[in-house]
Write a structure and sequence with these properties.
alpha/beta, UDP N-Acetylglucosamine Acyltransferase, domain 1, 3 helices, 9-stranded mixed beta sheet
């Protein structure tokens, strides 16, 4: 791999069979797992952004991208500010122009649709899908197997297995299909569906 062609930092750690396309930028202390695909003009591991223009010392901070993840065109993933890691799990699919802010913890098998914007300090559980043009407020925590509908604004916490829609986002139903597709064992699946059902009933 010609690091200069792709603007890859000398301190970045690149796994096996990683495809980095022209125009991509990989910053300092980025760790990329095996079989990752990074499309043109994705920018991974530059400093966090703040409205007051403050700068964060990047020492001992890193961005981790799990194996099998795909980062499409113009995806941006920022370095952490308060913690040590911004992470995206394995087999995620981040569509064009989606953004992952500083200090986020994105699980495995997560999909971020085009222009999904994830603010800082957000946690998203495994097998969750975030729709087109969704905004997720800083500090939010979304459980596994959730779905956030297109153009929604989400703020707060969600247990696993909930479908949210609207501005502000509200819970509308249990993500039964998503839970079944996650390949969990029967006991775990039934527990998620039961807990999600109780949550929806209490929210109505």
């Amino acid at each position: 791999m010609d690091r200069q062609k792709y603007i890859v930092s000398k301190s970045a750690i690149i796994g096996k069979n990683v495809e980095i396309m022209p125009g991509a930028v990989i910053g300092d202390n980025v760790i990329i797992g095996d079989n990752v695909r990074i499309f043109p003009y994705a920018v991974i591991g530059l400093e966090a952004q703040y409205s007051d223009h403050r700068r964060i010392d990047p020492s001992n901070k890193k961005v981790i991208i799990g194996s099998g993840t795909v980062l499409r065109e113009f995806v941006t993933i920022h370095m952490p500010s308060d913690s040590t890691t911004t992470s995206v799990g394995e087999n995620c699919y981040l569509m064009a122009t989606s953004h992952v802010g500083h200090d986020c913890d994105i699980g495995s098998n997560v999909t971020l649709s085009n222009s999904a914007n994830i603010a800082g300090h957000v946690k998203i559980g495994n097998n969750t899908s975030v729709g087109l043009n969704v905004s997720i407020h800083q500090g939010s925590d979304i459980g596994m197997c959730c779905m956030i509908g297109a153009q929604s604004f989400f703020k707060g916490n969600s247990p696993p297995g909930i479908i949210w829609v609207g501005i502000p986002a509200r819970p509308i139903k249990v993500n039964t299909v998503g839970v079944k597709r996650a390949g969990l064992d029967r006991v775990k699946s039934e527990d998620i569906i039961l807990t999600a059902t109780k949550f929806i009933r209490a929210a109505v």
